[in-house]
Amino acid sequence: MLVDDHAMLRHGLAMLINMEPDMEVFAEAGDGTEALEILKKNNSIDIILLDVTLKTVSGLEVIKSIHALVPDLPVLFISMHDESVYAERALRAGALGYVMKQEPGEVLLDAIRKVLKGNVFLSKQMHEKLLKRMVMKGAEPEHLINTLTPSEFEVLHLIGQGHNSHEISKLLCRSVKTIETHRFNIRTKLNLKDGADLIRYATRWISEQQ
């Protein structure tokens, strides 16, 4: 099943996958709610390709609901977001792989086949970064970031990219009030004193992930 809020992208992915003799797109969903409804009615799905950024709720939240319904169902994240920022978070949420949408089609097909076999799929560069982070594990900033909810994590990422609350509201299809609440919660969890401190922290954190 393909879960992405861009119908044109889903159509393109479906065409790519359906050309393979051993694959077929069984269902498509535009958001998490629709995906869960499909799962409740069907048990023929072997893998879900899930976007990170969906309208109203993060894909990192949707995966929790998917696994609550079908615990062992493999999930492969496909996203426009840099894997250096999101891949580790995706694995922590229960995914078996992460593919950026900028990758060639053959990379996605390879990822699907590996995840279906129960293997983890990440780029070689990301594998190396995760190994390095494991060696450095225990640093306080990383620990604090891991206390953020998926939605707060998305907002921190976008702040680090230079977006203000109104822009983030439009990008995530959520109210400005909700974004401001996330900003407050992020500052509280990361022990940041004000908005300027949050922007500095987010910008530095993004640069460190590259």
Structure write-up:
The protein is built from eleven helices and five strands. With 210 residues, the protein is an alpha/beta fold. It folds into two domains: 2-132, 3-Layer(aba) Sandwich (Rossmann fold), CATH 3.40.50; 140-209, Arc Repressor Mutant, subunit A. A five-stranded parallel β-sheet has the order 2-1-3-4-5, with helices on both faces. The longest helix is centred in the last third of the chain and has 15 residues, at 195-209. The chain starts with a strand and ends with a helix.
Which short descriptors sum up this protein?
single chain, 210 residues, alpha/beta, Rossmann fold, Arc Repressor Mutant, subunit A, five-stranded parallel beta sheet, 11 helices, 5 strands, 58% helix, globular
Number of helices: 11
- Major sheet: arrangement of strands: 2-1-3-4-5
Work out the count of structural domains.
Answer: 2
Helical coverage, percent range: 55-70%
- Kindly, what is the distance between the CA atoms of the first and last residues, rounded to a whole number of angstroms? 31 Å
List the helices and strands and how they pair.
Blueprint: E1 2-3, H1 7-18, E2 28-29, H2 32-41, E3 48-51, H3 59-69, E4 75-79, H4 83-93, E5 97-100, H5 105-116, H6 124-135, H7 140-145, H8 150-160, H9 165-172, H10 176-189, H11 195-209
Parallel strand pairs: 1-2, 1-3, 3-4, 4-5
Helix pairs in contact: 2-3, 8-10, 8-11, 9-10
